[in-house]
Amino acid sequence: MMQLALYQIDAFTDRLFAGNPACVMPLEHWLPDEVLLKIARENAVAETAFFIPEGNDFALRWFTPEIEMDLCGHATLATAHAIHTILQHPGDELRFHSRSGLLKVKVEGARYVLEFPSRPPVPAELPESIRLALDRMPVAVLRSRDYVLVYASETDIREIQIDRQILDRINLDPGGVVITAPGSDCDFVSRFFTPQASIFEDPVTGSAHCSLIPYWSGQLGRKELLARQLSDRGGTLYCADQGTIVKIAGEAVTYFTGTCRVNW
Question: Which residues are bridge partners to 5 per DSSP?
Fold first, then answer.
């Protein structure tokens, strides 16, 4: 029986019960993948981040209750928050080695600034299973890792109805469907849906902004952008397009710190 530290943190928000909750677990060495997946299922949040020290850097992995992810923004932000505020790591820059390469996070006041790879979306055909699940059609369809469906207004994003039974016919592992439009009090808004996942609508999706930022930067002709994700919990992201990388900044709040007992 092992006792392991476990933290739950709300990311991309400055208040509890908003943003996107992530669990963060520091490890001394990697546990078997099947155990990491079982822990993620038990935690029952969108993502659980596991990290181990590698010299002055960290190795970082993310698991949903179903799969290991290639990239996760809110769980990376939560991990940086845990290392900086709970574990009192010195310095204002953290470096993570991941399946998506080296990821840097800088602490700037209350915000954590993620440096992620840019993934500009390109025009794509809309799969039939996605089209049939929508109660209104987008004005543009693009794809990178995720399908990016562009709508005319924030009202479309708020009011859209998506038939989950139909959308679940498609498997986009590890991607999803992001819907987006210009914002009324920000530059752009979005929502994110993952077919066949236990958590259908992700509250705040940092990784999707690797595609949303270059798209809206090109559309609006600006490098710095304010974004909001319009889930029930909601979240705010401060974004910058810097060519091959995007910067995604947000705040975080610790919900709990504790330990779990793991045996396999």
Answer: 259
Contact 230/156 with Cβ under 8 angstroms? no
Give the contacts of 233 (CB within 8 A, at least 6 positions apart): 13, 17, 18, 19, 20, 203, 204
Give the pairing type, strands 93-98 and 57-63.
parallel
Residue 47 falls in the annotated catalytic set: yes
- From the list 28, 42, 47, 154, the catalytic residue is 47
> What is the total residue count of the chain?
264
pLDDT tens string 90-134:
999 999 999 999 999 999 999 999 999 999 999 999 999 999 999
User: Dihedral of the CA atoms 49, 50, 54, 56 (nearest 10)?
Assistant: 50
Which residues have C-beta within 8 Å of that of residue 154, sequence separation ≥ 6? 181, 182, 183, 184, 189, 230
pLDDT value for 264: 78
Contacts for 163 with CB less than 8 Å, ≥ 6 apart? 132, 133, 134, 135
